[in-house]
Amino acid sequence: MRREIPVLITGIAGVVFVVQYFIPHFPFNRLSNWFSDWFSIIAACAIWLGALNLIKISIEKIAYRRHDWGYSIIVVACFLLMVVFGFWAGRDSREPGMPFTWMYDFVYSPLSATMFAILAFFVGSASYRAFRARNLEATLLLLAAFFVMLGRVPVGDVLTGFLPEQFQLSQVAAWIMNFPNSAGQRAIMIGIALGIVSASLRIILGIERSHLGGE
Amino acid sequence: MVVFIALTYGCLAATPSLWAQEPSPTSVAQITAQLAEPPADETPVAVLNVRITDTPNDDGHALDIRWDASASEAEGRVDHYEIWRAAVIDGQAGEYANIGEVTSGTYIYTDGNVSEDGSYYYKVFAVNDSTFEGTEIWTLRSESAVAGPLTPVAQWFDMQRINVFVGVLLLCGFIIYYITQARAGKELFIRKIAGLEAVDEAVGRATEMGRKIYFIPGSQDMDQVQTIAGITILGRVAEMAAMYETRLDVPVSRSLVMVTAREVVKEAYAKSGRPDSFQEDQVHYLTDDQFGYAAAIDGMVVREKPATIFMMGLFYAESLILAETGNSVGAIQIAGTGEPSQLPFFVAACDYTLIGEELFAASAYLSKEPRQLGSLKGQDIGKGLILVAILIGILLETFGIWDFSKLFKVIE
Description:
Number of domains of chain B: 3
Number of helices of chain A: 7
Structural class of chain B: alpha/beta
Number of strands of chain A: 0
Helix content of chain A: over 70%
Oligomer: heterodimer
Helix content of chain B: 40-55%
């Protein structure tokens, strides 16, 4: 029963989701929203599991002086600080000037922005490796990247201004993006859609059960 | 010098009209008053033939109102049309209220704010108005005859999605057929997927090096099928890790994923005959925040230098941050996602990448279970059909024989 009941629930929920897409009549038209609401409620309640797990692991690390335990002090301190600031003034905690808002605006947001900004450097290093002309495919990739990058900046058209308009770099870049690139992306998306249908069907029929912890 | 400045300022101050860009309130009022009376021949002719129909393929909360153009529209005497509605109360039309308007040239309005429990009357006004500087000077309306009453009805099947329905039936039919074939013992050929062939090698490498394996199941929750696909692969990887007695670490960003992944890993260790090796903290929560999650994993990767990193699931901008950090410590990386925009990043930074459908095929491929492999065969047949449809479409559309693509239009 430990396996059968989850499989049954998954199967029913899966069929309901498929059916509601084709039937606009009540109650099918509401089912998707109801399921989404239930999921949001369960996920919101479950966040305590995650938070408690994080604190438990961090405190254990500090208590037993495990490797890199110093970082865990920062984790626990920041966690508790934000909880205290969050409850400090009740609903007013999110008002401008309150400690919670201050931490959010001047600590959390800049840190998130910093992580996002690092992406620019990683794109550079990854591109360097990907665009090395080691074989035919990599050379084609390098050429396509060269034309697209140069075609996206004004200097591209300045350099090729003497050519007919359709051969100028901005047009070449647009052609690469609109045709070969779109075709490739769509092929991948068709494959993904088929893969999702197939995987969903395996889950709905109970053939795929490994996400439930067993065959 | 001071005298010159004073004289200049005095001259400019004496000529205020030079600076007056906005018309004075008096002039607007004067013009408004002059035009307040509309010319007698500006009244538009009322619209004719107002029809109400139930909006097709909906949940019974909309009605379509159509009408014929006012005869005055061609002469430029219709600015817009107003639609007025009255609910039926005790068998009579209640009070009419303006529910919306459309510009001239449009002769249909969908009222999406009605209920299956009510019936409704409608009138359409042809409106000609004049404004000056944003102020309405005069408005002339002509009222149509009343249409209705009509009650909206919910449909039991959305006919606009019949093509999707047929497609789903066909695909599911193929998949179920091949599952049945596989169950009956028929040999099925499945092409090799390099990324999945390398799973053994990747786990073995971590064992030889005595370092950890990291499995990152994406940054999204269990309501995403990609996360489920990632978790199914985790089960196979955990089995191998347990067999080789290699430490597996699963940092997650959602509590529900943590609970599910923990159960999967625990079962995998039990199945490998090493239930005692499983530790709950192998699967641990970090944060729900996208970049907080990436930062935490980056820190762990740099400090612990795992030998192998699996990234399977739904990733967004954090994909390259994670993959490049893993690459920098020399870990063998196998990634898979169904997010097309993140695939190039994984291809550039990882050793093997499961591209789209391969992620969903991974569990079946690794399990070698006939029924699951049968579903892959059915999926491939579906792909073949789509390929044929694309080729036919290219021919028909290129030579202008038939608008083949309309068969595949999907209404959201």
